[in-house]
């Protein structure tokens, strides 16, 4: 099952996709605090392709705190001037302007923004022999059948059915309603392994949340719950949810780099099962809110044509339940840890409140207040 535009926009936490398609705007999380860390046993020379979007700043800051030398390669257009002074910035473009990478050596390359296989190929042709290991940030959208719960890293991947994956662009992806997103990410994974056989680490996140997330998918819920009153809650309290804080993902990625780990890993969370009910309850506690949750079933939400507007949650009766039930045992066994949802909620709200007022007044995901009120009224009427 190929990913649809709807699911792409809902799941565009897949770090690589958002930056490459210019969905990241606003202030980064470079100013966010990184916890006290010990220095790594060995200092590495790390090249990060991207590095100024959502998770990139957390990777950069954590790497520096661990004593690594960091170089970023990007166009220099996203959040210019916000990089820490210790970071070397190389200017270029994944679309053919890679000269800044030539003649340089690094211990590892972390490829964050790639959506297209040609980007991996072109960078790898220059970096092969000059980089010891390659880390590709992928997505859980690479899996072929998202209707199956509990998928691990051995599940079949989406197949590309086009003429030539190396000729695809972001424009052709949009023209195909983002149905190519998962298959092209899968080919990108294979391309990385082709150029760096046995030296490639593939990380597949799903919903990435926390401070710096400009999509507002998760941010909508703390903002809405804190506002209080009657809150439309989708489905049932038992519906599964999987998310990962951007800081947890970035820091774990760097620890995997230090360990020299290779292979593919689902990177979602938390470790114990998270449900929509538990998530909203914990957000309510973190915001000290008087919110009252009214649970509206998925059939009614679908009839009201509002089901696609609800972020993070996925109907357990739909064809995409796999996105909320990934098997993460492999990643947890390699040290993936998760901070409390309370921390993620508070940090997200703190970051959001620092955005311009005009930005705060226009959420990029979630249900509009007037539409929420309409649906709630219709739901109550249908119960009488």
Structure description:
The protein is of the alpha/beta class and 384 residues long. It has one domain: 3-Layer(aba) Sandwich (Rossmann fold), CATH 3.40.50. It contains 14 helices and 13 strands. A 7-stranded parallel sheet has the order 3-2-1-4-5-6-11, with helices on both faces. A two-stranded parallel ribbon has the order 7-10. Helix 7 (220-227) crosses helix 9 (276-287) and helix 9 (276-287) crosses helix 12 (341-353). The longest helix has 15 residues, at 181-195. Mean pLDDT is 91; it is low at 1-6 and 13-26.
Concise overview:
The chain has helices spanning 5-10, 15-20, 56-65, 117-127, 170-175, 181-195, 220-227, 246-259, 276-287, 298-303, 329-333, 341-353, 357-360, 369-383, and strands at residues 45-49, 69-74, 88-91, 106-111, 131-137, 200-205, 208-209, 230-234, 240-241, 244-245, 263-267, 274-275, 292-296.
Number of domains: 1
Derived structural class = alpha/beta
The main sheet comes to: 7 strands, parallel
Overall outline: globular
What top-tier CATH class fits best?
Alpha Beta
Q: What integer is the average pLDDT?
A: 91
Could you list the spans in which at least 5 consecutive residues all have pLDDT below 50? 1-6, 13-26
Which value, in Å, is the CA radius of gyration?
20 Å
Strand content: 5-15%
Distance between the first and last residues' Cα: 39 Å
* Structure annotation, total helices: 14
Task: Give the helices and strands as they follow along the chain.
Answer: HHEHEEEHEHHEEHEEEHEEHEHHHHH
Helix content: 25-40%
Q: Tell me the CATH superfamily.
A: NAD(P)-binding Rossmann-like Domain
Label the CATH architecture.
3-Layer(aba) Sandwich
Quote the CATH topology: Rossmann fold
Which strand order does the major sheet show? 3-2-1-4-5-6-11
Number of strand segments = 13
